[in-house]
Amino acid sequence: VTLTRKEAEELKPWVDRTVQKFLGFEEPTLVTAAVSCLSSGFDRAETARKLSSLLDDAKAASLAEQLLTGAVEQLRTKQRQAQDEDGSRKTRFSEMPPTMGQPSPGQLTTLQIREMMVNAQRMIEERKKALGGSVPTPVVPVAAAVADSRNRIAELTAQIQAKLGSRPGFLQQPAATPATVATRPTPLILNAEGRTVDSTGREVQLAHHTPTLKANIRAQKREQFKIHQERLGEDVAEQNFFDQRVGAKPAQRGRRGFRFHEKGKYEQLAQRLRTRAKLERLQQEIAQAAKRTGISSATKIALMVPAARAKEGKEEIPDVEWWDTFIIKGESYDNVIEAVVAGGAPLENLLEGVTNLVEHPIQMKAPTLPTRGPAPLPVFLTQKERKKLRRQNRREAWKEKQEKIRLGLEPPPEPKVRMSNLMRVLGSQQVQDPTKVEAHVREQMAKRQKAHEEANASRKLTTEQRRDKKLRKLKEDTTRGVHVAVYRVLSLTNPAKKFKVEMNAKQLFLTGCVVLYRNVNLVVVEGGPRQQSKYRRLMLSRIKWSEDTIQGEGEKTEKNQCILVWEGTVKSRSFGELKFKVCPTESLAREHFRKHGVEHYWDLAYSSTLLELADA
C-alpha cells in the first residue's frame, strides 16, 4: 500500500487509536514510525522489520498486519464515501424529465379551450344586445334559453375544430392525469342580468370574506381552546383511573398580573413599629419607677403561693396520668372504661399510636470507643528527603520574592557585600575611597547579624510558653478512658522514697491514693498512657527498693520490693490528688477503697499477699 503524505496524515489519528488499543497505552514514537512505513509504501515484512526496533518480533508482525489491513479498509471506505458524494452532487442538478400526461407546448389545454368558448359566448351576447334595440326579443322560457346556449356552444366548438383540424393532435384531449393545481384564478362568467354563473349557466353564490380585527381572532381562538380543554377534561373524567380528589394542574401557567400596594400601607407599618417601640420604652420606665419605690417587691410577695397550698396542689391526683396523655384522646379514663366494660365505642377509636409494631431502643456506642477512625500514621522522611524538601521550599520562596520584585511590589535588596567579595562588587568605589567602603561593608554585616538574631529571638518561646508547652506534654486527654495502675510495696517507711512517689505523681498530674497497712502498701495512680509509662519506670526501675531491708519474724530479714499488681483502663477517675492514708486494720483499708467504688483493688492486692505468705 503506497500512500501520499496527505493520506498518511489523515490516517494518523486512526493509527494512534490502533496502537493504543494494541499496547494499552499511548506511544507517539511507534505511531510516527507506523505512519512513516505507510507513507513509504513498505510491505508487511519491511513494516514488521521497521517496527521490531521498538517492539519484539511477534508483536511487530501482528501490529504490521493490523496496520496494513486496516489502512486498506480505511482507504476503500473513504473512496466509497467520495463516490457517494459525487453521485449526490450530479443528481442534484440533473434535469427533470417531462412527466407523462402533460400537454406539449404546441397543444391547447382544456382551460384554454374553455376560455375561447366563453369569449365566443360573450361576443354572441353583445351582438344580441346590439340587435335588441331594433327587434323586440321574444319571451323565451328558461329551459329553451339554456338549450339554445348549449346548441350555440356546440356549433362554435365544431367551427373551431374545423378551422384547427389541419394541425394533427392539436385539439386532442390529453390522457387522464391527476388534477393539476391552477396557477391562475378561474375566469368570472356573468349572464345578461349581471349575476355570476358557471359554464352550464347556473347561478353561483360566492363566499364574501369580511375583514376582522386581530383581537376578535384571538378571542375566537381562546374560546376554541377552552372548549377543547373542557372536552379533554370530560374525556379524562369518564376514565376509570381518574381521581377527582387530585387537583389537575393546567398545562400552562396562568399569567400573573401586577399587584400594587395600596397607598399608605408602609406608612401604617412604620407607625405601628413606632407605637410598639414607644410602648416598650414606657413599660421599661414604669418597671424602673416601681423598682425604685419598692412596688415591684410588694407585688412579687403578693404573688407568692404559700408552701402548704403549693404542696396540696402538687399532691392532687390528675384525671389522666402524663404517660397516658400520649395515647388517650379524651381528658379522662371514663371513655376507655365505658368502652371496655359497657361495650360502647370500640377501643381502637379511643386510643392513638397503639399498633402491633415493636419500638426498639436506639443503640448507642460505648463512650470509650473513638468517635473517628484510626488516625493516619505520620510519614517520617529520611535525612536526604528532608534536605531535598528544604531546598524545594527555599527555591519556591526565592522565586516568589523575585516575582514580587519584578512586579514592583517589593524593593530590590541591597547587594550582599562581604570582605571577601569587596573588590568584585564595588570595584571602582573601592579604589576611590577604600576606608569608606570598608566601613559600609562592616555596617551591612552588622545589620545582617542583628536581623538574624532578632528573627531567632522572635521564634524563641517565652517562659510562660515553655511552661505551657511542658504542661501540654504532661497532661493527656482522658475522655476516652483513664489508665490505672496498682502497685504493692512491702514497706514505705523510707521518707526519701516516699517523697519520690508523691512528688513524681504530682509532677505528672496523676491522681490516686497511697494506703499504708503493714506489708500491703498500695499505690494507685490514674492518668494517661504516657504518664503511666513514666511512672511505671519510676516505680519499677529508678527507685532502688532492694536497698532497704525489712525485719521479718524473729531475726529473719528480707529485701523490700515493688510489684505491679494490675493495670488497665476505666471509664472515669475515682480519686483526686494523690494522698497518703494510714489504715491500722484491713477492714479500714477496704472501707477506704469502697468509698471510692474500687474495693476490688484492695481485694486483688490483699489476696495475692496471702497467697505469697501461704507459699512461703
From TrEMBL:
Principal subcellular localization: nucleus
InterPro entries in UniProt: Pre-mRNA_splic_Prp3_dom, Prp3, Prp3_C, PWI_dom
Region (Disordered): 74-107, 440-473
Pfam families noted in UniProt: PRP3, Prp3_C, PWI
Presence of keyword Nucleus: yes
Ranges annotated as biased composition (Basic and acidic residues): 81-93, 440-467
SMART domains named in the record: PWI (SM00311)
Keywords, in A-Z order: mRNA processing, mRNA splicing, Nucleus, Phosphoprotein, Ribonucleoprotein
GO biological-process terms attached to the record: mRNA splicing, via spliceosome
Subcellular location: Nucleus
GO annotations of cellular component type: U4/U6 x U5 tri-snRNP complex
Domain PWI: from-to ranges: 3-77
PANTHER family linked: U4/U6-ASSOCIATED RNA SPLICING FACTOR-RELATED, U4_U6 SMALL NUCLEAR RIBONUCLEOPROTEIN PRP3
Job of this protein: Plays a role in pre-mRNA splicing as component of the U4/U6-U5 tri-snRNP complex that is involved in spliceosome assembly, and as component of the precatalytic spliceosome (spliceosome B complex).
Protein name per UniProt: U4/U6 small nuclear ribonucleoprotein Prp3
Species for this entry: Amblyomma aureolatum
Taxonomic path: Eukaryota, Metazoa, Ecdysozoa, Arthropoda, Chelicerata
